[in-house]
Amino acid sequence: MSNNSRQNGSESAARAGGENGITPSANLKPVQVKLVLLGEAAVGKSSLVFRFVNNEFQENKEPTIGAAFLTQKCRLEDKVIKFEIWDTAGQERFHSLAPMYYRNAQAAVVVYDVTKAASLDKAKSWVKELQRQANPNIVIALAGNKIDLVQPNEEGEDDSESGRQVPTEEAKAYALEAGLLFFETSAKKGDGVRDVFTEIAKKIPLEHIISRPRQVNSNSNQINVIQPPGANRSNGGGPSRDCAC
């Protein structure tokens, strides 16, 4: 398996103050958290990550081949989380590679498309796999993406004619039953994206995080595309921006 990497600017931490408006110490040592994105192809996984890391959206983004690796720091009141994000390919032919990416992950974002009911079924299968095979302390978030494609009716509510195929309450009920965090997002407009990573950061059980070998230079924000033999395409990214957790 080959590795292509591209420098993506300096990594930075968000500046979120504590409850009393006190800015956390700049000397806080980042806690490394491995996070994996899973979901059917074309639900917007890469766009969610790109919005989180660079606060940008790319139209007609090429499908991920294998997996892409990105990093971003998120500063909370009393800790700095450094997310090491594995954005996996959604095509079925890459499914067998998934355990390599979610192994030892402390967090996962399982993404579906609110305008495609079948994508929620696929998301549910990923959740079952994670709960069966992944880290038992993993924090899982379910994210219904592409809410920008949903148009409300005259009563201001979504309906089947609005483009939505997955009702919010249905997905939320499933997430509650399965013990997941739940969000609806728009990678295109940025709605809800920061919330996903902020809430995950808050839920991470730090006492269970085990140090592991470094995978990238800790002083830089990188995108590495992990490709299967014979693949020759890679995903790139623009300049890094502050995380707004």
TrEMBL record:
Supply the SUPFAM superfamilies for this chain.
P-loop containing nucleoside triphosphate hydrolases
State any single GO MF term: GTP binding
- Keywords in alphabetical order: Nucleotide-binding
Chain spans, region Disordered: 1-21, 217-245
Write out the biased-composition intervals (Polar residues): 1-11
* Signal peptide coordinates: none
InterPro entries on file:
P-loop_NTPase, Small_GTP-bd, Small_GTPase
Q: Nucleotide-binding: present as a keyword of the record?
A: yes
Q: Which SMART domains match?
A: RAB, RAN, RAS, RHO
Identification of the protein by name: Uncharacterized protein
